[in-house]
Amino acid sequence: MTHNFLSGLTGSFAMPAAENPTVAMVEAAYRHHGLDIRYINCEVTPERLGDAVRGARAMGWIGFNCSIPHKVAVIEHLDGLGESAAVMGAVNCAVRRADGFIGENTDGKGFLQSLRTVTDPRDKTVVMFGAGGAARAIGVELAFAGAKRIIIVNRSAERGRGLADLLNSRTAVQAELVTDSAPYRVPAEAEILVNATSIGLYPDIEGRINLDVSSLHPGLIVADVITNPPRSPLIRDAEARGCRTLDGLGMVVNQGVIGIKYWTGIDVDAAVMRRTLQDLLL
Ligand code: NDP
Q1: Exposed, middle or buried: residue 40 (CB in 10 Å: 0-12, 13-18, 19+)?
Q2: How far is the CA of 198 from the centre of ligand 1 (A)?
Q3: Is the CB of residue 219 less than 8 Å from the CB of residue 118?
Q4: Distance between alpha carbon 154 and the CA centroid of its chain, in Å?
Q5: CB 199 within 8 A of CB 228
């Protein structure tokens, strides 16, 4: 009888890395589907990022995720970029293809896959709080998915303007910026609201975005990127107002599903991954 003791290799390069639960979630999916692949969570300093990518290439890794602080810096070490990663200027998932490691961005794609369980964003008006990395990824994917209008609500005008300009110049969506200090009132025509800021994240778990909660209308879809805790203040406020809600776990899980699909071509069971995360985080 012959054996194969050579597992496929995937993993993550980030710093810090110890609190990132992705390894547990991804390896649960590998086990569930009988895939002989490992996911190795690596702490990599910015100075060693090039060495890490060269090492992955030398060892024949199938692909890797990269997170803070490497999402932009990794690009110079890769061999090409996917379409939305090129527009965002950020990569969180490298995939080995014939041309070498190609950089993709699954942040926004994971969000979109989660959103699509309740609605199609095509021709819709979206209110999005935030203009950082997560907002950039979500804004670009919403635009590519055919959203009609994105109203960006952000504290810093400079960052907000940068994202609105990017979306208006590189995609077909109509993007506009609101930086008022008054609590934002959601217009009646908005069908989706997204919190893509870090407000509400542990330890500031009672943090609230600058929103007039009384303007949340029933039927509005309210999504939060915050995963810790998943039942963020926004999700609780939106439920109390009769909105449909999507928590940040759906986005993380779907990023995992999309990453594994890129690496292996296999559609893994999202429920297995969500259960693993919930057991760890709740
Ligand atoms: P960035 O630092 O790039 O951006 C942070 C955003 O939050 C900016 O728009 C910033 O506004 C805003 N913000 C932060 N604090 C405040 C505050 N006190 N008042 C007003 N605005 C504030 O972070 P990322 O975009 O990378 O990440 C944002 C969140 O998304 C994080 O919590 C992260 O964990 C989460 N995330 C979740 C993912 C998931 O799969 N669920 C995936 C990726 C990220 P300003 O421009 O004015 O500074």
Answers
A1: middle
A2: 4
A3: no
A4: 18
A5: no
